[in-house]
Design a protein that fits this description.
about 130 residues; mainly alpha; about 65% helix; about 0% strand; elongated
Length: about 130
Amino acid sequence: MSGIAVGANKGFIVTKRPLYKSSRKWFEAKGAKEAKKQPGMRVKVVRSVVRQTVGFAPYERRIMEILKGGGGNPQKRAWRFAKNRCRDNHQLGTHSRAKKKVVEMERVVSAVPSKKKAKKATTATTK
């Protein structure tokens, strides 16, 4: 710092403080990939239990309806709905979040028929 208001070295002259071990330093040493990783096993189990007990939010059910309904490009309509409608409830609001939610709902929609088929197969074999 030079004490001058302009230029590459601008700013108020200060004495540098020594660096101590801190969480920020640890975070930088680990790297962004390791620090922001996928949720652990416990978190996954808790989320699945909550999903089973609570079910889906109304806007999620609507997204599933749009995906099941078909029509002209249902995925795009679902993205648009998820982005625009849910902004009011402070749910999603961005295109990337909407895409992520639609993918999640697509997985649920595709999993439901396979569960029904498995149920029918077990009842058929027992009869």
